[in-house]
UniProtKB/TrEMBL annotation:
Keywords: Cell cycle, Cell division, DNA-binding. Residues 21-99 form the Sporulation transcription regulator WhiA N-terminal domain. This is Probable cell division protein WhiA. Involved in cell division and chromosome segregation. Residues 129-216 form the WhiA LAGLIDADG-like domain. The lineage of its organism: Bacteria, Bacillati, Actinomycetota, Coriobacteriia, Coriobacteriales. InterPro entries: Homing_endonucl, Sporu_reg_WhiA_N_dom, Sporulation_regulator_WhiA, Sporulation_regulator_WhiA_C, WhiA_LAGLIDADG_dom. The keyword Zinc-finger does not apply. It comes from Collinsella aerofaciens (strain ATCC 25986 / DSM 3979 / JCM 10188 / KCTC 3647 / NCTC 11838 / VPI 1003). Pfam families: HTH_WhiA, LAGLIDADG_WhiA, WhiA_N. Belongs to the WhiA family. The keyword DNA-binding applies.
Length: 309
């Protein structure tokens, strides 16, 4: 099961906080996943298509319990993608038009409601229930082991902005992005995603995100340390090769025998331990020498060769 499916399944099992919360959830489900068709003058047909069993179960259960309407249920299987597609249809029937007004899909004059219906999200708990329904119906939550990303795919710019405003009201910052005639309300911040899922009841999913984030932090820290160590080793190796080249040049010019004791000791140490850093090389001296002391001896060798022309 994908992480998105896990989140949807967990949200579909959340209990309502008040008697109107289930209506808010059902309203979001039908708005995000539903298609409204005219079946004649004043007659309608509502179809909800989904690949998620949690959406289908929630849609049917709430429709029967709240709206008392008849539903038709069809399961289709895609041969190409090998996934099931669930089709829930509310055929034309008495009181369907009233139910569409109650759900905030139609206004009282029979016109389509473009934005988020205000009467559905009047209470704070109902706002959370509505957002929960929208995420169950059209949400995507990336596996937290990869990039952090949450989005809700919807139709209509005004509705997308309304959903974005609804998220702002509960303290979650989201943005809207247009995509081939549809819109995505999206969040890319791990903290914002955690806050949203915590508010709408996906506590188990939040725990998974926190665990994945902790693992990422450890991996990133290890990678930084490894990269720093490799960089240090590369610099040390390059410096050691430069110092060996200085010693070879001293030999070529016949200056090795005239070196002061301090410089002669350094040359002997470097030839015996060609791969050590200056810090480690100093520990091999007797008595031990500091990295700074050895570095100044390298500078003296460079000046000596430069002065010899």
């Amino acid at each position: 099961m994908s992480f998105t499916a896990e989140v949807r399944d967990e949200l579909a099992r959340c209990e309502p906080e008040c008697e109107y919360c289930d209506l808010s959830t059902l309203a979001a489900l039908t708005r995000v996943s539903g298609t409204l068709s005219l079946a004649g003058s004043g007659r309608y047909r509502l179809t909800v298509a989904t690949e998620t069993g949690a959406v289908a179960r929630t849609m049917i259960a709430l429709t029967h319990r709240i709206l008392k309407l008849k539903t038709e249920f069809t399961v289709r299987k895609s041969v190409l993608h090998k996934v099931r597609n669930y089709l829930i249809t509310l055929p034309d029937q008495p009181d369907l038009d009233k139910a569409l007004v109650l759900l905030g899909i139609l206004d009282r004059r029979g016109g389509l409601v473009a934005g988020v219906p205000r009467h559905i999200v009047a209470r704070p708990c109902c706002r959370l229930a509505y957002i929960r329904g929208a995420l169950i119906a059209g949400g995507f939550v990336a596996d937290p082991r990869g990039d952090f990303h949450l989005e809700i795919a919807v139709q209509g710019e005004e509705y997308a902005k309304g959903l974005c405003d609804l998220l702002e009201q509960i303290g979650v910052h989201a943005r809207v992005n247009a995509r081939r005639g549809s819109y995505a309300v999206y969040i890319k911040s791990a903290e914002e995603i955690k806050r949203l899922l915590q508010l709408i009841g996906a506590k188990r999913s939040v725990a998974e995100i926190e665990e994945a984030r902790a693992v990422k932090l450890v991996k990133n820290d290890v990678n930084r340390r490894v990269n720093a160590e490799l960089a240090n080793q590369t610099r040390s190796a390059g410096a050691a090769q430069h110092q060996l080249a200085l010693i070879d040049e001293l030999d070529r010019r016949g200056l090795r025998e005239t070196l002061p004791d301090a410089l002669a000791v350094f040359c002997d140490l470097r030839e015996r331990y060609p791969d050590l850093s200056l810090r480690d090389l100093g520990e091999m001296a007797d008595p031990p020498l500091s990295k700074s002391a050895l570095y100044h001896r390298v500078l003296r060798l460079e000046k000596l060769i430069e002065a010899s022309g």
